[in-house]
Amino acid sequence: MSITVTPVESGFGAEVSGLDLRQPLNHDTYAAIEAALSKHGVIYFRNQPLTEAEQEAFIRWFGPPNALARQMNNARMKNPYFYDVSNVDEEGKIMMEDHERRLYLKANMFWHTDMSMRQPPARVTALNAIVLPEIDPPDTEFADMRAAWEALPPERQKTLESLRVVHSVYASRSKVGYTNFNEETRKLLPPTEHPLVRTHAGSGRKNLYIGAHASHIVDMDEAAGRALLEELTEFSTQPQFRYAHKWQPQDLLVWDDSCTLHRSTPFDDQKFRRELRWCSARELEAV
């Protein structure tokens, strides 16, 4: 089964066509997809109306799937490997403005990388568009952390390479005022450390590993560390490092969490439904 990879103009982001992902992959096809993802950071497949089983089979090619804590903000998902990225409540109705899960999901509008609060963290995420707003579906934006690192002056790179960062879901959700974590989640998601600078396994290029879950820098004054993280996030998400995905119904959007940041963008979530089904594969080892 041959595929066609069509990069966007910048090379960060590409469309992969010639596949029906409802059919099982083989090793050669997976290797071609992995190569496209490693090179472009973000890839997408149009017209992929996948079942949960088909999406899970796809993500398992990239590594063990992340099982998420059972908590109120994921109540619609029965499969522990999926997360409900939607503005729909447990009864299938659009969530009111004061709904607790709506508040929790607002943090997705900050630049972040999925599951960096865990050890091992996510390596690859796959997001399937189940229902999109009829008018102007909101983009999902990405930033290339390899290109951002390479744009830093060499002397600045030297000051950053040895630093380690504490990542925590409580840090990212506190930005929107969400604190209602259940006991299961608190046990499963203690704060964890990662290097500020990683080497991307697929390309050998170095990249920043930051985002909204990044709380503070180890052995640095907390306020100074937070200021440095905010400065690096602002630098690395400049327009020249970005790709904005324009959603179409039944898209499967796939990205490399180890070398990208992403964020959702706003839409009229009191008028239009938006339902995306999320899953991710984790790194094989802690980083």
From TrEMBL:
Q: Which InterPro entries match?
A: TauD-like_sf (IPR042098), TauD/TfdA-like (IPR003819), TfdA_dioxygenase (IPR051178)
Q: Name one GO molecular function term.
A: dioxygenase activity
Q: Which residues form the signal peptide?
A: none
Keywords per UniProt: Dioxygenase, Iron, Metal-binding, Oxidoreductase
User: Which Enzyme Commission numbers does its entry carry?
Assistant: 1.14.11.-
Indicate the enzyme's highest-level EC class.
oxidoreductase
Please verify whether the record's keywords include Thylakoid. no
**Which stretches make up the TauD/TfdA-like domain?**
5-277
Instruction: Name the domain of life this protein comes from.
Output: Bacteria
Family statement: Belongs to the TfdA dioxygenase family.
The protein's name: TauD/TfdA family dioxygenase
What is the organism field in this record? Answer: Achromobacter veterisilvae
